[in-house]
Each structure stands twice: as structure tokens, then as C-alpha cells.
Write a structure and sequence with these properties.
Elements (H helix, E strand, L loop, with lengths): L24 E8 L3 H12 L4 E4 L15 E2 L7 H8 L1 H18 L7 E2 L3 E4 L3 H16 L5 E5 L2 E6 L3 E3 L1 H14 L3 E3 L6 E3 L2 E4 L2 E10 L5 H4 L7 E11 L10 E3 L4 E5 L5 E4 L18 H13 L6 E12 L5 E6 L2 E5 L8 H15 L3 H7 L2
Helix pairs in contact: 1-5, 1-8, 2-3, 2-4, 3-9
Bound molecules: flavin-adenine dinucleotide.
Flavin-adenine dinucleotide binds next to helix 1, strand 13 and strand 17.
Length: about 375
């Protein structure tokens, strides 16, 4: 059987389609990049009464937002105990709570395609288990739900407030809601030049009071001012035919490098392995590789999954040297959002919403807490 190079999510959802921009527009906000982060900003801006347009150079959720593992995790890319060390207990707790609040906003919008079963962090080394114990202790100390886990899926901790979802379905629902709220969306519309109050595309110029660039893996390409300390990284996944195994909990392991979920139809999607081949994955080329396929296949089989592999895909995300996401004004009226260090499903949408509040109100509690300002 030939293996598809597209994400499993593309097979199981009906895509909405949007035209390309072919005229000039004048709006309050132009969002460049319609992954989930950009779409959430579009929705929130429309909800708050702004005239908003969103453009994507490809299709909606054609990049990481539609090709990821579908884990919905509270907090940032740091484990909670590491976040406490890096940011201080108070700031880490506030950020964690903001991400829980973001999930509480989004989950009802995804009814039928989100499962808040809890997510496992398992580890199979003494070092990993010791770190998982610190992770548990820090969450418990600060009153966030967490349980020790020792069962058929390994040993570690269960975070009952986390869950999994269908990434392309989420984006389609966001797009539908955004248009129902009056936003205009365009696909196949590349921003060729972004400057204060103006976004240029091949067939139209958008004049905007605010511009929000939400292009995670391609952030520094669109906003070269953000290039310092930002690295593009390829992440890869494979998926299978339905399998009889019951992986009740979506999981991540090996310090979060490997992660998987089993879909309700029995298919398993698993990603990771970057720790095996670090340097080759610092790239903007989203072609999946044989080396990672072999690693992921072996990882999949170690879970007991025997079903045939049907998909192997990759997408590009951005990492920062200081491991903090970017959500800030880069030029007057031009805001950059991205570089979620590989864990942007919740943080990305939360910061997209926060930036819109910052533009409208001149402040956002989320941004103040996030950046400790
Ligand atoms: C394989 C993989 C697995 C992952 N698993 C998880 C996970 O389980 N949990 C988690 O939290 N995170 C995960 N992530 C990370 C997460 O997917 C991303 O952080 C998040 O989806 C980023 O979404 P976004 O909307 O900010 O950006 P993107 O989805 O990258 O969207 C950016 C959009 O900008 C568009 N664009 C780029 N340049 C231009 C331009 N010049 N003009 C117009 N449009 C442009 C692109 O076409 C794209 O649609 C994973 C990522 C990958 C790749």
C-alpha cells in the first residue's frame, strides 16, 4: 500500500473553501496566516466589533495547525515544574490558569470532535520518572488537577484536564464561526509585503489599522525583524489504519518528544523522534524523511499497534532560543505571533485572542501575566 504524504486529518473532514483576494480592502484588522492562532484572533476581533479580514497564502490550516498531533495541553512547552523554575511560581501558575481558561472557551466550540479524557505523560527511565514526579508535585502544590498513573499505558502522570481533538476540524469550525460573525477570509493570498497599516498581496492591497502576522513556522520569513533567536523546525508524524488496541489516553513520553493519540475510529497518529536526529530537523523543508519514518514505525510497534501505516507527513514550526513564544508589536500597528516551541495548540489561540484585546484596550491581562510585565 502506498503511504500518503498528507496528514490523516485531511481524509476525515470536509474543507470549507474561500476565494483569493482580488481587490483592495480597508479594515480595522488584517490577520496574515489562518492557522488556529490567526483564526482565533479573527473570531475574537469580529466578536469585539472590528472589521476584520484574514488571509492565508495556502489553505486554512494547511500548515502546522492542520498537521499536528491534536493534543490539547494546558501550560506552555515547558513542563509545569520547569515553567515554575524559569518564570517563577506565581507567573507560571497564572499562565497555566489562562491556558485552562482558553480550553474552557474553545472546547464547547468543538463538540463531537474533542475528547477531554485526560492526557498521560509516561516515562520509561529513572530520570524521566523522577522528572514526572516533580511535574506532579508542582501541579498538585498549586492546586491544578493531576494524578499518578501506573497502568496498561505505562508509568507516569495523568493530567485529567488535557485532551485531544481533530486539528483540521477545529480550524474549519473557527473559520465558519468567524465568517458568521462577519469576518472576510481569503485563501491562496500570500502577503508579499507587511508594513505599518498595509499588507500587500498579488491582487490587492489591504489597508488596516492593525496587522497581526500569525505564521508560526514562517514568522521570520514574513517579519524578518523577528529572525533573531528564532529557528525553524520540522516535526513529523505517521498514522495507521484502525487498530484493535485500546489506547484510552492520548500520551506523550521521552520528555514530550514522542506523542500519540488513537482516534475514535481506531486509527493511531504518532509523532516525535526529533531528539534522535536533531540537526537535520532544523529546516524549513516540510518533506518527511525515511529516518524519522523508521523511528516512528518502531515507536508505534512498541505500543503494540500492528495496523498498516497509511500516512507520513511533516510541518514546520518555530522555536525560540529563550523558549518563550512571540506575541508582540514588531512595528507600529504590526503584531507578530508564533514560535510556540512545538506546543501551540492552546497557547497560540490564547495569545491570538490576547493580542486583539491588547490592540483594542491597550492592555491584556493574559499578555501581562505571560510576559511578567
Ligand atoms: C507534527 C506536529 C505535531 C504537533 N503536535 C502538537 C500537539 O499535539 N499539541 C500542540 O499544542 N502543538 C503541537 N504542534 C505545534 C502546533 O501545531 C503549532 O504550534 C500550531 O499549530 C501553530 O498554529 P498557528 O496557527 O500559529 O500557525 P500555522 O498553523 O503554522 O499557520 C500559519 C499559516 O500562515 C500561512 N502563511 C505563511 N506565510 C504567509 C504569507 N506570507 N501570507 C499569507 N499566509 C502565510 C501558512 O499558509 C499557514 O496556514 C505540532 C506541530 C507539528 C508540526
Amino acid at each position: 500500500m502506498s503511504i500518503k504524504g498528507t496528514a490523516i486529518w485531511e481524509d476525515t473532514v470536509e474543507r470549507l473553501q474561500f476565494p483569493a483576494l482580488d481587490s483592495n480592502l480597508e479594515v480595522d484588522l488584517c490577520v496574515v496566516g489562518l492557522g488556529a492562532s490567526g483564526l482565533r484572533a479573527v473570531m475574537h476581533a469580529a466578536e469585539r466589533g472590528l472589521k476584520v479580514v484574514g488571509i492565508d497564502g495556502g489553505v486554512i490550516a494547511g500548515a502546522a495547525a492542520g498537521r499536528n498531533g491534536g493534543l490539547m495541553l494546558a501550560g506552555t512547552a515547558d513542563f509545569y515544574n520547569d515553567a515554575c523554575e524559569r518564570l517563577g511560581d506565581d507567573r507560571a501558575a497564572k499562565i497555566y490558569q489562562h491556558t485552562l481558561d482558553e480550553m474552557a472557551h474553545v472546547v464547547p466550540l468543538l463538540e463531537g470532535n474533542v475528547r477531554m479524557t485526560g492526557v498521560l505523560r509516561t516515562e520509561d527511565t529513572d530520570e524521566g520518572l523522577a522528572e514526572a514526579a516533580k511535574h506532579l508535585a508542582a501541579l498538585r502544590r498549586d492546586g491544578f488537577p493531576v494524578e499518578a498513573y501506573d497502568g496498561s499505558q505505562g508509568q507516569g502522570i495523568l493530567i485529567p484536564t488535557d485532551g485531544s481533538f481533530h486539528p483540521v476540524d477545529r480550524a474549519m469550525r473557527f473559520a465558519q464561526l468567524a465568517t458568521q460573525m462577519g469576518a472576510q477570509l481569503f485563501e491562496s493570498t500570500v502577503a508579499t509585503d507587511v508594513r505599518p497599516h498595509e499588507v500587500r498581496t498579488a491582487d490587492g492591497v489591504i489597508s488596516a489599522r492593525h496587522v497581526l502576522v500569525a505564521t508560526d513556522g514562517f514568522l521570520k520569513r514574513v517579519l524578518p525583524a523577528l529572525a533573531d533567536g528564532v529557528r525553524q523546525v520540522r516535526l513529523q508524524m505517521i498514522a495507521t489504519e484502525p487498530d484493535a488496541i485500546d489506547l484510552k489516553y492520548p500520551s506523550y513520553t521521552h520528555f514530550g518528544y514522542d506523542y500519540w493519540q488513537q482516534r475514535p475510529d481506531g486509527r493511531v497518529a504518532i509523532g516525535g523522534g526529533r531528539h534522535q536526529v536533531k540537526e537535520s530537523e532544523f529546516t524549513d523543508d516540510d518533506t518527511p524523511t525515511r529516518e524519522l519514518f523508521e523511528y516512528l514505525e518502531q515507536r508505534l510497534r512498541s505500543l503494540g499497534v500492528t495496523a498498516a501505516i497509511t500516512h507520513h507527513w511533516a510541518a514546520i514550526v518555530s522555536y525560540t532560543d529563550n523558549e518563550q513564544p512571540i506575541a508582540r508589536e514588531v512595528m507600529p500597528g504590526v503584531w507578530g505571533l508564533g514560535a510556540f516551541n512545538g506546543t501551540g495548540n492552546v497557547v497560540g489561540t490564547m495569545l491570538g485572542r490576547a493580542l486583539v484585546d491588547q490592540m483594542i484596550d491597550g492592555r491584556s491581562q493574559i499578555l501581562s501575566d505571560f510576559y511578567g510585565e
